[in-house]
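[Meeting: bench + compute handoff]

Bench side (C.D.) handed over the final construct sequence. Compute side (W.E.) agreed to return the predicted structure before the next meeting so the bench team could plan truncations. Sequence as handed over:
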Amino acid sequence: MSMIRDLRAAVRPRPSLRIKDSGSYDTTRDPATPSAVVDCAVYRDGARVATRTPLTPQEAMRQVRRDGGFVWIGLHEPTEDEFAGIAREFGLHPLAVEDAVQAHQRPKLERYDDSLFTVFKTIHYVEHDRLTATSEIVETGEVMCFTGGDFFITVRHGGQGSLRALRHRLQDDPELLAKGPSAVLHAIADHVVDGYIAVADAVQDDIDEVETEVFSPGRKGTPRGTDAGQIYQLKREVLEFKRAVSPLLRPMQLLSERPMRLIDPDIQKYFRDVADHLARVQEQVLGFDELLNSILQANLAQASVAQNEDMRKITSWAAIVAVPTMVCGVYGMNFEHMPELHARYGYPVVMGITVGLCLTIHRILKRNGWL
């Protein structure tokens, strides 16, 4: 236990992290580069085996079979032809290879004869000045992991989710890397779930901002509401987040609870911590969905209240205008014998009565809250 007591600290960033110059590839694939391999290294006794030139996957595997250790290969968006040679070399199952090449898979864990195939959805929060009806809140990517007894292969899709810094942090902890490929799988799972936690905190801030805007007072103390499109867009992004988090909970529980030949027993218990963190994030995301439903309903209710308020005011003014309209309509008729038609003070009397009726109606409507 003393060898892995700092397991979680080893796979998280440290301010004083010293990145070793181990001759690794850059983790962002250059379109002009014919190979999808971004890094390939052999690890023996927890240390990276130094080489003069970058190894090919076939050369690395030959070293492992001859001298022991394990090989860690990182790929970024390989084509079917690029991945075919690696799949043959390591005996990967065709169904898993097809999923890794095509991407757009649900998070899952699949067991084959000599390997585990794990799919993670990576989430990246997109910074924005103000939430709009077209704002992109989260970007998703994928990391597929093939875990074998003497190899570990990662296949990344999307511009986010680089594993270069994680690889260097693991290389700084040889006791952890000595546990083999299962230690790398745990480190990636922990790295992905920590990213979920950070994104959940950022999305929480966006939801708080929308909630404040919806319920903040407008003119005359009435709620001003907000654009329903903003709330709906945020709800869509939360749904995308939920699709990454929820399906992963069961695989993490399996890795933490069920003994597996390819998972070191000392490492397995740490998957329970990852599963606990993932469960907390899932509860947050489900809460986000329910809260956004309530905010959307409240916003629509406020819009209905505002429309009713406007209709009441229009109706009130129409009632006031109806009095002079009626009087003018009566006296606009061409009858010779009409009340006060020839009286000296008939006009001011009629106008006074009209104004008095209008003021009385206005006062009554004002007192009842219609104006």
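W.E. noted at the follow-up: The longest strand covers residues 115-125. C.D. will use this when planning the next construct.
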